[in-house]
Structures are given as structure tokens and as C-alpha cells.
Specification:
The complex is a heterodimer of chains A (534) and B (351). Chain A has 534 residues and is an alpha+beta fold. Chain A contains 13 helices and 22 strands. Classes of the chains: A alpha+beta (534), B mainly alpha (351).
């Protein structure tokens, strides 16, 4: 989450990045691509599994919480959760993640190739048109990138594309664009798959006509209330989309949203309160869609502030956490136990490192060795995202068993001047792959490095630079694994869990698939195009 | 400011007691009429004074937000340039008194400033919502006021009989229930679990009006009626009982007047005085209570706007809505006082 001032529970599930190269079928060209990972076209065959033959028609009504007067529609930005649904209805990205969180060329790009560590080439598919009938060309691509790089726009994806040289984007032909980077970066493909890096036509502005390549055109939009989207008759994927109309409705109250679904006034809703999961499951006409997410709420120990300068204290605190209990109490079981490491969907996620369990005896002996037994510490938190206060309170109870007093400070001004300067605090993050997450939270130049990682005497930074420049997958995975090992042994994060996304829908709707990813409801049915009414 | 504590609803009647020396309202003498206009004028001045004081309180309260207002609005996205620009826009560099006068002067011209979150004029943002909320309050008032007066009066006439006992019990139970409990129970009964005859949420399309699809109004209105009727009915019953036991009602009966005349012309007007005060307080309360109900039913009114503004720290919207609700309190109290004077001869003659 780049912007921690506009936080809501939805931020948990926000940005992702992944670095997954894919070599798809016949698209792999042996010659001249020895360096690069290749993302080649596999046409428009979607990886979404479906049941039965899709039918055309109907008005799909979606309820979303987390919106308000600041809602916006922008092909390259969001500030609230309903914005996500509205963006993906009208705008598309060059690459697309599948339900296993693998990057595919099921987007606007026919291929995306890393020709050299600092050169990426993008080739567009043929015959894709915008809502106004204009054909998508490399000019639109150049404009889209330039808009993304414009710091005045305050766009979401700007930070992730920092390695691209804005003055060195080359138009090769009408469908091909080359990005020349300021430095080696193997994460560009991930960025191109982020839903908020949508492709917009030349001259696009937020206040102008909402003109994308997506399956639905905006008909009306009132921030904080609702938007109506109508079927794009010239959509490039044949047959899709299926609904005549999509209505996205803001709900301040999750309970009202569930009621509207029960009463048949909505066809799907995001984020049902855990307490109401059984209510929805007990209803014969409704179904719950539970998708494994990669969002996490860390307890952050700043490694350069007392008492956490001693690695034994950090390890002791990590051993005090009973992760199963936290998953049960904070998430009502809707999540998976984590191991103080982030980015669970990354190609290099270090699942081989032994799972940490609560070990109070070991924690006590580590603290004693560090001369800190019976210590007291303040844990700062806030209602920034659902669960941030709960996780602190439960951890404080668990720490008590190890003789440590943790005073939970729930501060409404947490994200003020003290943020990132605290010894011990709770924060939250969305789904991201490893290297992009490191860039955001685990190196000195990261905007939100709560733990002040890495230690000055560590080789973590040089491993990071090598991994960014490494195009060989096996070598890159080895480098990322080494980085994670350092964080596992010495890091400042206590990461108790990854949360799931729990959504609900009417059984009249077909085509939803529980998928790993950032967005709710199977990326809102891939922009409402892979779902239909029976 | 937004929602009055529920304790304030059962407010005690002001300067009136049921019953009085004059059994029947005589026609107003000319002097009395002038006195009433003078009274209204005095109350209007007083109301204006109260509003000025309230506006100062609202202004100072928003000034008292911890830290720098511009920083509070911009949060972590603040850059020195954007902070400076916002301070200029909010006139934060000017003396406090000047800032207040700019804001209050704008309000007088119907300009409540610019919303921080939506980047639109506040009035554009909330105008439709005010209409929606006002209509909901109006519907609730139109149903609950006559209903509560009738129930209260009828219960008083049949004191300790089955109707009285039943309504006393029901009103007591309903008065104890918070609106959201009532609202959710109604949703369970009529929209989701028990039956599905009514909509669970009141979706009004942007630009639409609630009266264009009255079915969405039924449950929110019913919730507010249930929330307000018990208070007014209980006050009405109490004051009616007191009036019925008074000497002048007994005298009217002894004079052989028909019971119908005794009740309609002698008892009821005198019992209404204190009830008006409670009605006014409850209507004003509705403007705040409507926020909870709007939340439960996702009704696009001022409640949603206020909730959203608070979470966004959208000060101009908060200030405008707080002033609106405060103004409503002042106006309704004024109306109640005038109505009380008009129906209570003893007070009228004292002017």
C-alpha cells in the first residue's frame, strides 16, 4: 500500500506484483532470446474454468464496501475498493495473472520480452479497439506509460515503474514499444500485470470520457453511491462479456450489504463479515467464494531501536506468538499461518524454512541471555485496517506468558509523524511478490520500511541488486531465497498469517473461480466478463 | 452534534404545565395577537443568537483537531507544496477571527465551501441527500405524530383498561430498543429471513427521488416511527390524564357538555402543549437518528454523507451538516414554543 493515509480494510488485498515468467506453447522463439524471459501470446483463451455454456443478458448488481465521496474512475488509479471494480470493468492491462497467480499473456500484449536486463519489449495484440472505436496502437502505450510516470498525476503504479526511463521509451512500430530502463529490473512484467496499470488512449484524462478497451463502458457514476456500466458491443474477446449491464453499488455497512444479498437486491458482494459466513452458507440460493489471499498484518520490530537491536530479543518475540490462535481469533480461521516471511505466491517463497511455533521456554531463555527477561515494551497500533488492533491485543496476551509486558497503544494518529520511527508497531500490507515488496518495505529507500531493515553489516542489499538484474530464473530464485533466509534469521517482522478474501454471490451467477490474487471475487469476474446469469 | 444522546429525547416540557384556568380558548384580542408577534420576533432573535454561538462552537471544534488541519487532511501524502496550497485554500494563514468570518459569511450566502474528498462544492454534494433525508423525516413525522397523539389520548381515556396496559407495555419495550435493532429486526422479518416482501436496502439511484419508488421508504420509515412514537405517546397519555383529572374538565362535565366536546375542545388542546415540546425534540432527534437508519438501509441521505465526511476528515462537509442539524433543532424548538403558546390559553394570555 503506497498511500497509508487512505487506508481501509480493503487495502489488505491491494497491490500485488509477481515475477513469474511464462513460456507458453509455440510462442517461445529459440533464437535471440537466450537472455530474456518470454511472455508469448496464447491468444485469448482464458484460463478461467467455467460451468456450462455462458448466456447473454441481465443486469449484474455488485455491492462493495469501503467507498465514499472520494471514489473515482481512472484507468490507472484507485483510492477506494469500489474503484477497483469500476476500473477493471472498463480498462485492461498488458499482462494478466491467472488463478494460480502466474503471469500470462491473456491481456492486451501479444508478448512481453526482457531482451536484456535493462530492456523490455512489448508487442500488442492486433485489432483491439477502445470504446470510441479507435484501434489500440503503440502511441496509446507510450501515452499510458508517460501518464504513469508523471508524478503530478499521483498514480498508484508510478512507484513500481521507477526503473523505467521516461525519456527513453521507443516506439518500434505501430504495435511494438521498447522500454529502456535506468537500471536492470526483472520485475517489469509484474508491474504490467497490475490491474491499476491500465492502458488508456492518447489524451486520456480522469475528467474526460472514460475510454478504455475493457468489456464495459461507463454509463453513469456518482461517487459514494453507484456506477452503471453497459456492455461494450465491440469487445475484442469474442462472445464476452455476457451481462447487458453492471451496477456497482457502494455500501458503508457490511451488514446492510449481506441483507441486500439475502433479499435478492444484489447478485454478489465483497468481504462478508466473518460472523455472517455461516448465514450466507446456510442460504440455499447463495454461495461463499473464499480465495487464498496474500495480505498480511506484521508486528514490526525496528532493528536499530532498543530493545530490538539484539537479534535474540527479536527471535524471542517471534517465538512468543501463537499463530494458530491469532488466525482463529483475528480471522475466524479465514487465513493461513505465516512464518515471518511475506509474498507467499512468489516463485521463490521460502516454504522450506521450518515453520515457527510458539516456544515460551526458548523465548524466555533468549531474553534471559539478552538480559531482557521480564521486559516491558509499547506496541503501537491503530484501526487502519481490520484486525490491526486485535492482532496487537492477542499478541500482548501471548507475550505475558513469557513474562513480557506489552502495552498496546491504540493511537488514532498512528500514521502521523511517529509512523516508521517506532520501536514496535503493527502495520498492514497487500499481496505482492517478493522483489516489489522489498522495494516498498525492506530497503532503506523503501517508502515504508518499518523495521529499518537490513542491518548495515548484511549483504542483503547486494543480493537484492543481483536479483533485480538476474534474468536466469533458477539463479534469481536462489538469490531471493538467500534474502528470505536473512530475514527469517534476523529480520524485524513477526508475520502471523496471510488472510483470505471472503466474498459471496448468488447461485444464479456462474463462472466465479476461487483464485489467488489481489482483487475480490476472482478479480470481479475478470472485469465482469467471465461470469454470467444462468 | 450529529446524533443527540437518546436521553435528550425525553426532554421536559418548557414553561408549560397541562391544564389551566381558562377552560376554553377565547378569541384572541388584538393586544394578544401583537404580543404573539412580539414573542415570535424575540424567539427568532434568540434562535439566531443560538445559531451564531453554535457556528462558533463548530468552527472551534474543527480547529481543535489534533495537529495541523492541512496535515490532518492530506495525511501521509502531504508534501510541503501541497500543504502550503491547502493552507492557502483553507485560509489557514489568516487570523482565526478572519477565518471564522469567511466561513460564516459563505454560509449566509449558501456557500458551504469545497469538499476536500470529492473536490466539489459541498452544497452540490449534499443537496440531494438533504432532500432524501428530509423526505424520510417528513414521512416518519406525518405518521408518528398523529399516531402517537391518538394512541396516547386513547390510552388516557381508557386508563388501566386493556388498550392502555397493552400500549404502555409496547411503548416501553419499543422505547428501550435502539433504532438499529428495530431496523435489523424489520429487515429479518420482511426482507431476508422470515419473508422477502420488502427490499432490505433502500437503493435510490443517483438523481432519483425516494418518492419515485415508495416501496424503499417503508422499512426506514417504519423504523423511525417505532423509534419516535413511544416517547410522544407516553407524554401525551400522561398529560391527557392530568388534564382529564383537572377541575375545568370536571366543571365542563358537570355543566352537562357532551363528552365528545369535553375531550376535543377542552381536554385535548391543553394536553397537546407539553406534547408539542416532545414532538419537536423528537423530530430534531430524527434528523440525527436518521443517520443510524440510513446506515442500516444504505439510504442515500445526510447520514451517509456525514459518516463519510468524518472518516475522510472532510471538514467543510462536517461543518455544513452540523450547522444544518443545529439549525433544525432551533427551528423546531421555535415552532414547538409557538404552537404551545397558541394552544395553551393560560400561556397566551400571559404574553
Amino acid at each position: 500500500m503506497e498511500d497509508k493515509s487512505s487506508r481501509g480494510p480493503w487495502d489488505w488485498h491491494r497491490p500485488t506484483t509477481s515475477r513469474r515468467e511464462l513460456i507458453l506453447g509455440a510462442g517461445y522463439l529459440a533464437g535471440g532470446l537466450a537472455l530474456g524471459s518470454v511472455l508469448a501470446a496464447c491468444g485469448s483463451s482464458s484460463s478461467t474454468s467455467t460451468s456450462g455454456t455462458p448466456k447473454r443478458g441481465g443486469n449484474f448488481r455488485l455491492g462493495v464496501t469501503g467507498g465514499g465521496a472520494k471514489d473515482m474512475i481512472d484507468g490507472q488509479n484507485i483510492v477506494t475498493k469500489p474503484d477497483q471494480a469500476r476500473l477493471v470493468a472498463g480498462f485492461e492491462t498488458l499482462l494478466v495473472y491467472d488463478e494460480k497467480y502466474n503471469l500470462t499473456t491473456d491481456g492486451l500484449a501479444e508478448s512481453v520480452t526482457q531482451d536484456a536486463p535493462d530492456k523490455w519489449t512489448i508487442r500488442l495484440k492486433q485489432g483491439i479497439t477502445f470504446h470510441d472505436g479507435k484501434t489500440l496502437s503503440s502511441d496509446d502505450l507510450v501515452y499510458s506509460f508517460q501518464r504513469l510516470f508523471d508524478p503530478k498525476q499521483g498514480l498508484f503504479g508510478t512507484a513500481g515503474l521507477g526503473s523505467v526511463d521516461p525519456n527513453n521509451i521507443t516506439k518500434m512500430d505501430t504495435r511494438t514499444v521498447r522500454l529502456n530502463l535506468k537500471r536492470a529490473d526483472s520485475t517489469i512484467g509484474d508491474q504490467l500485470g497490475q490491474y491499476y496499470n491500465g492502458i488508456v488512449p492518447v489524451g486520456y484524462t480522469r475528467s474526460g470520457p472514460q475510454n478504455g478497451t475493457g468489456p464495459y463502458k461507463v454509463q453513469s457514476f456518482t461517487p459514494g453511491q453507484q456506477s452503471v456500466h453497459v456492455r461494450n458491443p465491440n469487445y475484442w474477446r469474442s462472445g464476452q462479456p455476457y451481462f447487458d449491464q453492471v451496477t456497482v453499488i457502494d455500501f458503508p455497512d457490511p451488514a446492510a450489504q449481506v441483507n441486500a444479498l439475502l433479499a435478492g437486491q444484489l447478485d454478489a458482494i465483497t468481504d462478508i463479515p466473518f460472523g455472517q459466513v455461516d448465514v450466507v452458507k446456510g442460504h440455499s440460493g447463495l454461495a461463499v467464494l473464499e480465495s487464498p489471499g496474500g495480505g498480511w498484518l506484521p508486528l514490526c520490530m525496528a532493528i536499530d531501536i532498543e530493545p530490538f537491536t539484539d537479534v535474540r530479543v527479536r527471535q524471542a518475540f517471534r517465538l512468543m506468538a501463537n499463530r494458530d490462535q491469532i488466525v482463529t481469533q483475528v480471522l475466524s480461521g479465514h487465513g493461513r499461518v505465516a512464518n515471518d516471511l511475506y509474498s507467499p505466491f512468489d516463485e521463490a517463497y521460502a516454504s522450506d524454512l521450518p515453520q515457527r511455533h510458539q516456544d515460551l521456554a526458548q523465548a524466555k531463555s533468549l531474553l534471559k541471555a539478552a538480559g531482557k527477561d521480564g521486559m516491558t515494551v509499547d506496541l503501537h497500533t491503530t484501526d487502519g485496517a481490520a484486525g490491526m488492533v486485535d492482532v496487537a491485543t492477542i499478541f500482548a496476551q501471548q507475550a505475558k506468558a513469557a513474562g513480557v509486558t506489552v502495552n498496546v497503544k491504540n493511537d488514532p494518529n498512528y500514521y502521523g509523524d511517529q509512523y516508521l520511527k517506532l520501536a514496535f508497531s503493527v502495520d498492514f500490507w497487500g499481496t505482492r511478490n517478493y522483489l516489489p515488496q522489498v522495494a516498498n518495505g525492506s530497503i532503506p529507500t523503501a517508502p515504508y520500511n518499518e523495521c529499518h531493515w537490513p542491518p548495515s553489516n548484511s549483504n542483503y542489499m547486494s543480493l537484492y541488486q543481483q536479483a533485480l538484474g538476474e534474468v536466469d530464473k533458477t539463479k534469481r530464485i536462489a538469490l531471493k531465497h538467500e534474502m528470505q533466509k536473512l530475514e527469517y534469521d534476523q529480520g524485524g517482522y513477526i508475520i502471523p498469517f496471510f488472510n483470505d478474501l471472503v466474498d459471496a454471490y448468488s447461485k444464479k451467477v456462474n463462472g466465479f473461480v476461487a483464485s489467488k490474487g489481489t482483487l475480490n471475487l476472482d478479480s470481479f469476474g475478470h472485469g465482469f466478463r467471465t461470469i454470467w446469469f444462468s | 452534534m450529529a446524533s443527540a444522546p437518546s436521553g435528550s429525547r425525553s426532554g421536559t416540557p418548557l414553561e408549560t404545565t397541562p391544564g389551566g384556568a381558562a377552560a376554553q380558548a377565547p378569541p384572541l384580542p388584538a393586544v394578544g395577537r401583537n404580543a404573539i408577534w412580539a414573542f415570535i420576533f424575540r424567539r427568532l432573535l434568540l434562535g439566531a443568537l443560538v445559531l451564531i454561538l453554535v457556528s462558533i462552537v463548530i468552527f472551534l471544534a474543527t480547529q481543535a483537531l489534533p495537529g495541523d488541519t492541512a496535515r490532518a487532511i492530506l495525511g501521509r501524502t502531504a508534501t510541503p507544496a501541497s500543504l502550503a496550497a491547502l493552507r492557502e485554500q483553507l485560509h489557514l494563514n489568516r487570523p482565526l477571527v478572519v477565518q471564522y468570518l469567511i466561513w460564516a459569511g459563505g454560509l449566509l450566502h449558501g456557500d458551504a465551501g469545497q469538499s476536500m474528498a470529492a473536490q466539489e462544492p459541498v452544497m452540490k454534494l449534499i443537496a440531494d441527500r438533504i432532500v432524501n433525508s428530509a423526505f424520510l423525516v417528513l414521512c416518519s413525522g406525518v405518521i408518528s405524530i398523529p399516531l402517537s397523539v391518538l394512541v396516547g389520548a386513547y390510552a388516557a381515556l381508557w386508563r388501566d383498561k386493556a388498550f392502555d396496559v397493552a400500549t404502555s407495555l409496547t411503548t416501553l419495550v419499543f422505547a428501550a430498543l435502539p433504532e438499529f435493532v428495530v431496523g435489523i429486526t424489520l429487515v429479518i422479518l420482511f426482507a431476508t429471513t422470515v419473508s422477502q416482501v420488502l427490499p432490505a436496502v433502500s437503493q435510490i439511484p443517483p438523481g432519483g427521488r425516494p418518492w419515485e419508488q415508495p416501496v424503499v421508504l417503508i422499512l426506514p420509515t417504519l423504523t423511525l416511527v417505532i423509534a419516535v412514537t413511544p416517547y410522544v405517546a407516553r407524554i401525551m397519555r400522561a398529560s391527557m390524564i392530568e388534564v382529564l383529572e383537572s377541575d375545568y374538565v370536571e366543571l365542563a362535565r358537570l355543566k352537562g357538555l357532551a363528552e365528545r366536546i369535553v375531550i376535543l375542545r377542552h381536554a385535548l388542546p391543553n394536553a397537546l402543549g407539553p406534547t408539542f415540546q416532545v414532538i419537536a425534540l423528537n423530530l430534531a432527534y430524527l434528523a440525527g437518528g436518521v443517520i443510524v437508519v440510513e446506515y442500516v438501509f444504505n439510504y442515500a441521505g445526510i447520514g451517509g454523507a456525514l459518516r463519510d465526511a468524518v472518516s475522510n476528515r472532510d471538514l467543510p462537509v462536517i461543518q455544513a451538516l452540523a450547522m444544518l442539524i443545529a439549525g433544525l433543532y432551533v427551528v423546531l424548538n421555535l415552532l414547538a414554543d409557538i404552537a404551545t403558546i397558541l394552544v395553551t390559553p393560560r400561556l397566551r394570555t400571559r404574553l
